[in-house]
Amino acid sequence: MPIERKLAAIMFTDIAGFTKIMGDDETTALSILENQQSLI
């Protein structure tokens, strides 16, 4: 029996200073997060 193989890709992204931004201005932080998600 042939072995069935599948490829997978895992991507990790980071937003520098996100915790501080979230503490300072949650609306801006969520906007940045939505923008980053739209790029992917």
Short description:
By secondary structure, this protein is mainly alpha-helical. It contains two helices and no strands. The chain is rod-shaped.
Task: Characterize the structure shown.
This is Guanylate cyclase domain-containing protein. InterPro entries: Nucleotide_cyclase. With 40 residues, the protein is mainly alpha-helical. It is built from two helices and no strands. It is rod-shaped and about 60 Å long. The mean pLDDT is 93.
The Rg value, from CA coordinates, equals 17 Å
The assigned structural class equals mainly alpha
Strand content: under 5%
The best one-word shape is: rod-shaped
Count of DSSP strands: 0
Separation of the first and last Cα atoms: 37 Å
Mean pLDDT: 93
Write the H/E string, N to C. HH
User: What's the story with the biggest beta sheet?
Assistant: none
Q: What is the share of helical residues?
A: 40-55%
Count of alpha and pi helical runs: 2
- Assembly type of the chains comes to single chain
Catalogue the unreliable spans: none
Helices and strands in order:
Layout: H1 18-24, H2 26-39
Main attributes?
mainly alpha, 40 residues, single chain, 52% helix
